[in-house]
C-alpha cells in the first residue's frame, strides 16, 4: 500500500435504545435499535490507515495515545475480521493479509463526555480499513458491530435500523438504512452537555448487569421494543414528528427504568438531566404541542430533537432557563441560529447558572467518507520503521 | 356516646410496593403488597372521636386545621362505611347511625415529610370510629383501605400482607398479618429524612399515570410481584435477613423504575437518595454480606432495615458519611444506641454536610390501640354545640 487512507465517520444517537447482549463475544443485541446519524461537520471521528511490509507491527493511536492492542479484544476482532475478508477476497496467501497495519484516530469532541465516541471510532476504523483494502462492498456494519455494538449504525447516514437478528452466529444482525438524511432535512439535534463529576458504570458493564438482574428487561425486549421499532420507523417514513418525538422520550425513559431495575441499580441521569426532562415536558405543554423531545444515553447529557422551524424560539427559552456566564459563542456551538434575537416565548424561571457545559446544535448527516486530510505521514514511517 | 374514644395507630413501610389501582373509587390495588408496621413510640397518628345528639355536625380536625369533609371523598367514604356497619349491627333506625361525629387527629411527625402519614391517619380514624361504635370485630382493613390504600396495612402490627384480591367489589382485598412484631424483634428501621425542596407528583396522581402509560407496570404486576410476595413472606417467616433485604431493595428499585417508565416520568428519588443507595451497596460489599437494605416510597426519604446486632457499627459509618452540624441529639432521634462510640468500620469518605435533615431509629410495633390521652374535651362540646 503506497498511500495513507483517511476517512471520517459520524456519531449516531439512538431513539430506540440498544441495551443488553444476547452474545457477549459476538456483540449480538437482545433487541433492535433505531438511530439518527449526526452531521460530521459538528462531530466526527477521523482515522488514517497505512499498511504494508514497511510497517513493523500493528499499532493503534487514539487521540495521541498508543492503544494496547494485545489486551483489547474488540480491536483484535476488527483486525482479524478484516484480514479474514482480505484472504477470502484475494486468496489465503496474498501479501496484504500478512501486512502490519498502522492506525491513527482522533475525535473532534471529548472522548469521555458520553457522546458515543466509541460508535464513531469503530465505524471509522472499519470503514477506513475497508477502503484501504478494497473491501467496501462487504457487510461493514457486521464488522463494526464487533468493535462496539452501536458502531454498526454509524456506517450509514440518516435514519438507521440495527436489526437484532436471530442467528446464533449473528449473520442476520446488521444495520440497514431506513431513510437518508435528505428524507427529513428539517430535523435538528441539540446536545446539552451536562456538568457532571460522578463515576458511572460503563455501558458494557451496565448492560451485562441488566441482562443478569433486571426482571423487566426481558419484557422490554420481547414486547415493548418490537412495537416501538415498528411505530418509530413508520413515524420516520411519514415524517410524523409528534409520534417520533413521543416514542423517543418513552424509550429513553424506559431504558433508564431498566437501568434502575438492575441490581445494584445503574444510574446514568443526574439532577440536571431530570431538570431537562421536566423542562421539555413543560415547554411542550406550554406550546400545546410536542415541539421537542429528549433522549439520554448511558450518561447525563441530553440529545434533543426539534424541527428547524421551531428551533429559534426553543433556543431562546432554553438559554433563558439554563443560563451561562460563558460567552454566547462558547456556550452555543454548531449550527448558528438564523434568527437569534427571539424573546423566550413562555418566560420560564431561570435555573442556577452553568448547569450545562455547552450546547451544540447539529443536524442529520451522511455515513462515513474518505478525505484527504491525513493523520499519518507515510514517508516518516517508511524511513523510521 | 358519653365519652371520648381515643386511639393511636402506627405508620407502615412497604417492602413490596403498592403502585397502581384496579379500581380508583373502591381503592383496589393491582398487586399485593407487604409491609412492616413501625413502633408507635417513635411515629404515630392519634385520633379522638366523640359522637352523639349533642354534636351539631360532622367535623374533622387534622393537626389543628379543619378538614373540608364535603370535598373529601375519602373521608366521606369512611364515615358512610362506618354508618352502614352501625345500621347492619344495630338496626336501620338506631339512633347512633344518625349521630354526627367529631374527629380530632394529630400526627407526631411532619405530615408532609413523605412519611406515610395518610396510612397512619386513616388507620387511626377507622380504628377509633370502630371502637367508638363497638365495631372492632368487623373487617377494618377493608374500610381503612377506602380512606388511603396503604392504611389497611396499619391495622395490624408486625408484618402485614395486603392481598390485592380479584373481586370487582373488593370483598377479597384486605390485609392479613404475616407475623407479629415479636416474631422478629431484632429488626430495626432507620429513617433518613432527606433535605428536599422539589414539588413531587402525589402518589395518587403518580400511580394513576403509571397505570395509564407504563408498559412495564403490567409485567411487574402479573409476573414480578407475585413471585416476590411469596419469596419475601417466606423470608420473613424463616427470618432470612439477606433474602428479605435483597427483595426489599429490588422491589424499591423496580417501583421507581416503573415511575420513570411513566409518561411523563415521575421522579421521586433525588441525588441524595441515590447517594444513600450507593452507600448501602458499598457498605454491604465492604462487610462481605448484606447487612442493611433500603426502600424508598414516593419521596426521597430512605427507610433502612438492619438487625439490632449490626446497628451500632452501621450507625457509626452512617453519621461519618452523612455528617451534620446539628447536635447529635437533634440529628439522631428515636431508639438510643447501646454502644454509641464505635469507630466507623470502613472509613468511607464523608459527603458534604446536612444532606439529611435527621435520622430516626425505630423498630417494629403493634397495631392500633386505645389510649386515655384525649384530644377532645367532651364537656366543652356539650356546652358549646
TrEMBL record, chains A, B:
<keyword id="KW-0547">Nucleotide-binding</keyword>
<feature type="domain" description="Mvd1 C-terminal">
    <location>
        <begin position="189"/>
        <end position="370"/>
    </location>
</feature>
<keyword id="KW-1207">Sterol metabolism</keyword>
<dbReference type="InterPro" id="IPR029765">
    <property type="entry name" value="Mev_diP_decarb"/>
</dbReference>
<feature type="domain" description="Diphosphomevalonate decarboxylase-like N-terminal">
    <location>
        <begin position="9"/>
        <end position="175"/>
    </location>
</feature>
<dbReference type="GO" id="GO:0005524">
    <property type="term" value="F:ATP binding"/>
</dbReference>
<comment type="similarity">
    <text>Belongs to the diphosphomevalonate decarboxylase family.</text>
</comment>
<dbReference type="InterPro" id="IPR053859">
    <property type="entry name" value="MVD-like_N"/>
</dbReference>
<keyword id="KW-0444">Lipid biosynthesis</keyword>
<dbReference type="InterPro" id="IPR036554">
    <property type="entry name" value="GHMP_kinase_C_sf"/>
</dbReference>
<comment type="function">
    <text>Catalyzes the ATP dependent decarboxylation of (R)-5-diphosphomevalonate to form isopentenyl diphosphate (IPP). Functions in the mevalonate (MVA) pathway leading to isopentenyl diphosphate (IPP), a key precursor for the biosynthesis of isoprenoids and sterol synthesis.</text>
</comment>
<keyword id="KW-0152">Cholesterol biosynthesis</keyword>
<dbReference type="InterPro" id="IPR014721">
    <property type="entry name" value="Ribsml_uS5_D2-typ_fold_subgr"/>
</dbReference>
<keyword id="KW-0443">Lipid metabolism</keyword>
<keyword id="KW-0753">Steroid metabolism</keyword>
<dbReference type="GO" id="GO:0006695">
    <property type="term" value="P:cholesterol biosynthetic process"/>
</dbReference>
<dbReference type="InterPro" id="IPR005935">
    <property type="entry name" value="Mev_decarb"/>
</dbReference>
<protein>
    <recommendedName>
        <fullName>Diphosphomevalonate decarboxylase</fullName>
        <ecNumber>4.1.1.33</ecNumber>
    </recommendedName>
</protein>
<comment type="pathway">
    <text>Steroid biosynthesis; cholesterol biosynthesis.</text>
</comment>
<keyword id="KW-0067">ATP-binding</keyword>
<keyword id="KW-0756">Sterol biosynthesis</keyword>
<dbReference type="Pfam" id="PF18376">
    <property type="entry name" value="MDD_C"/>
</dbReference>
<dbReference type="GO" id="GO:0019287">
    <property type="term" value="P:isopentenyl diphosphate biosynthetic process, mevalonate pathway"/>
</dbReference>
<keyword id="KW-0752">Steroid biosynthesis</keyword>
<dbReference type="InterPro" id="IPR020568">
    <property type="entry name" value="Ribosomal_Su5_D2-typ_SF"/>
</dbReference>
<dbReference type="InterPro" id="IPR041431">
    <property type="entry name" value="Mvd1_C"/>
</dbReference>
<keyword id="KW-0153">Cholesterol metabolism</keyword>
<dbReference type="Pfam" id="PF22700">
    <property type="entry name" value="MVD-like_N"/>
</dbReference>
<keyword id="KW-0456">Lyase</keyword>
<dbReference type="GO" id="GO:0004163">
    <property type="term" value="F:diphosphomevalonate decarboxylase activity"/>
</dbReference>
<dbReference type="GO" id="GO:0005829">
    <property type="term" value="C:cytosol"/>
</dbReference>
